[in-house]
Amino acid sequence: MRVLKGYATTSDVDVVGDIVRPEGVMFNKMPLPLLGGHDHKLPIGTVVSAKADSKGVMITAHLIPKGESRTADDWAAAAKYGAAQAFSIGFRSAGATANKHGGKTYDTALVHEVSLVVVPANSACVAKYVETPDATPAAVKPAPVKPQATKPSPKATEATKAVRIPLILISGHEAPETLRGIEEHNQRALAHNKRHGL
C-alpha cells in the first residue's frame, strides 16, 4: 500500500501571507479526495484520517493501488523520489480577516480536497511517502479430513452376514395358511442358501 503522511495545513504564514487556523479546520467528509495538483480531473487517492494538534492538521492518505491508475502511479513516483512532496488544501471559508503579513487569516476552513503538489504555498506541509505491505487474506488452514464410515450396501451386508437359513419341516398337522407360509419361507431359504453357496 502506498501511503502519504504529513501536515495538510499548519498555522505558519504561507508564501502569500495567508494563515489557516488549524483549530478552525473542518473536513467536508471522510474519506476525502486526494488530487494531483488541485486538478479535479486527477484523483490519485483518498485522505483516510485527519487529526489536529498544536502545529496543524496531520493527515494520512492512501494512493490508488499500483497499476490501477497511471496518473496515481506517476504521482506516487514523484512523491517517492522527492519531486512532489507537499500537501495543499482546497477549502471554503465563511470569512477571513486581513493580517499584518499582507494576506488573510482564516479562522475557519471547510476542506473539500487535499492535493499532492510540487510547489506548496505552505512549506511546512511536507508529505512523507511510505510503502507498507498490502493486506492479504490469511492462509486458510485446510480442515482435517475425517474418514467417514460408509454404510455397506445391502448386498455387501448380506454377503458378510450370510448364514444358512434352515428349512422348516412340515409335520402334517399345519393349517393350509401355515403350510403356504412354510412353503414360501422354504423357497426363500433355498434361494438364499444357493446364492451364498451354503
Automatic annotation (TrEMBL):
Residues 136-158 are annotated as: Disordered. Signal peptide: none annotated. Residues 31-128 form the Prohead serine protease domain. Keywords: Hydrolase, Protease, Viral release from host cell. One of its GO terms (molecular function) is peptidase activity. Residues 136-152 have a biased composition (Low complexity). GO terms for biological process: proteolysis. Coiled coil: none annotated. It comes from the Bacteria. InterPro entries: Peptidase_S78_dom. Pfam families: Peptidase_S78. This is Phage-like protein.
